[in-house]
Amino acid sequence: MHTKTPRTDIGSFPVSAPRSRSRLARAATAVLMAVGLSVGAAAPAHAANPHERGPAPTEQSVTAVRGHFSTDTVSVSSLVSGFGGGTIYYPTDRGEGTFGGVVIAPGYTADQSSMSWYGHRIASQGFVVFTIDTITRVDQPDSRGRQLDAALDYLVEDSRVADRVDGSRLAVMGHSMGGGGTLAVAEDRPELRAAIPLTPWHTQKRWSSLQVPTLVIGAENDSVASVRTHSIPFYESLPSSLDRAYLELRGASHFAPNISNTTIARYSISWLKRFVDDDTRYEQFLCPPPRTGIGTDFSDYRDSCPHGS
Prior knowledge:
Blueprint: H1 24-34, H2 59-63, E1 71-76, E2 86-91, E3 99-105, H3 117-123, E4 127-132, H4 141-157, E5 165-175, H5 177-188, E6 194-198, E7 214-219, H6 231-237, E8 244-249, H7 262-276, E9 298-303
Parallel strand pairs: 3-4, 3-5, 5-6, 6-7, 7-8
Antiparallel strand pairs: 1-2, 2-4, 8-9
Helix pairs in contact: 4-5
Family: Belongs to the AB hydrolase superfamily.
Signal peptide: 1-47
GO cellular component, one term: periplasmic space
């Protein structure tokens, strides 16, 4: 059990309780995955990498509103234990085996609708995506981290699409306090394949023990979670040996991740493909890093390129 000392109030946000670690059931699932006993159809035999899903990517495919796969949704009741319910977006294709899973949390006072644009967009690229509601809209980052943790377990163990999800290939995303929760659950659950905190907010500034490949997305004009006190310190505190990147959206506000955004989609999809699916075909969209400055989408970009194979 991993716990942290409760924090004192900072600013206008109340504090959160300590967060929890993995469950025995999850460990057992990981063992089953390791010995090849996972449930679901086998991956396509033709793929050099058994986790590759979909055709070879292009600039057009990673920026498209919809990807290669047709998708459908499943609603999850708010009566579920551990989080506030939500919506699962999943590929309807049964011919390419199981897919990596991505759980996404909203920010302070928001609900899953603020994250809904990621659903079909990411799922259609070959992922099972779960946008969740939190138990209350004012839940703090560590609470949101625990709820992301519970939603990950629900997705692979109890959901109606559990047989479509590869429980050994999971990722988390979240906005604002949901981004802080993304960092928290990634620190506590090192077996995750990827984490993408979006304009994240957290009172904890150092994440030096985090072991999950992490893409931090900040916004230049964020007045809620200033990049100087949140996104940049979060990124810089990550281990230098970690696959990591920091993307800062030029001229954007704290709420940029709540609205359909091609730059966020392009880099999020590429990050998930690269680290959840081990798909090196997407490396081209991450390395070398993009130009920054006037006339670009980025006010800052930092990266650990080249990524490990």
